Amino acid sequence: MSQPIHVLDDYYLAITLLVTIAYQLFFFAIAFSLKFDKLTDFAGGTNFVVLAVLTLALSSTGTDLPNARQLVVSLFLTVWGLRLSGFLLFRILKTGKDDRFDDKRDKFFRFLGFWVFQMLWVWICSLPVTVLNSPAVQAFPQPAFGTGRDVAGVVLYALGLVMETVSDAQRYRFRARNDRSAVCDGGFFYVSRHPNYFGEIIVQFGESPSPHQLNTS
């Protein structure tokens, strides 16, 4: 079995951090220069896709293809990132601007602070997939995909993605029909104050392989 490509460190931590910083600073420069809100959240969601594709590609060398677990979790992160960025882009195109940045848009360091937080959010939440695809893990034979933990992860991911997607749609429709002071309490919001965030948390747990699924020795 050929080895995954080694870049800077055995866990792809440095390369993914550098790519994330560069990616976010590129969009920050556009957003700050043009006072443009429409790419901010899109840059966050698509950054997950970039890291998933990058680390998966680096782990594929010669004729060796990524194993099933790598493909599944990388696909999961890609689908989630595309879904999130697509929805947020659609929403901002409809609303025109993001009120979160009204007190930051013209202030370089305050606006940059949000983007630094977004860098950390993307990089940290991508770590399970980054590490799974890294040489430190793939240098050793891995358990076959299909264990009970794998099945549980797939189920959690599916449940979380459905909850996040549906609750995003429910909240968007509610905001379109009601004043901003109104509280959305229908659908998933009837049982949870932030079901979209809860769904995202479940997604992250679902796509994160447990230490018992990884062989590093």
From TrEMBL:
Keywords: Membrane, Transmembrane, Transmembrane helix
Gene3D superfamilies: 1.20.120.1630
One of the Pfam families matching this protein, by short name: DUF1295
GO cellular component, one term: membrane
Keyword Magnesium: no
Transmembrane region(s): 12-32, 39-59, 71-90, 111-131, 151-167
Protein name: Steroid 5-alpha reductase C-terminal domain-containing protein
Protein species of origin: Schizothecium vesticola
Source species taxonomy: Eukaryota, Fungi, Dikarya, Ascomycota, Pezizomycotina
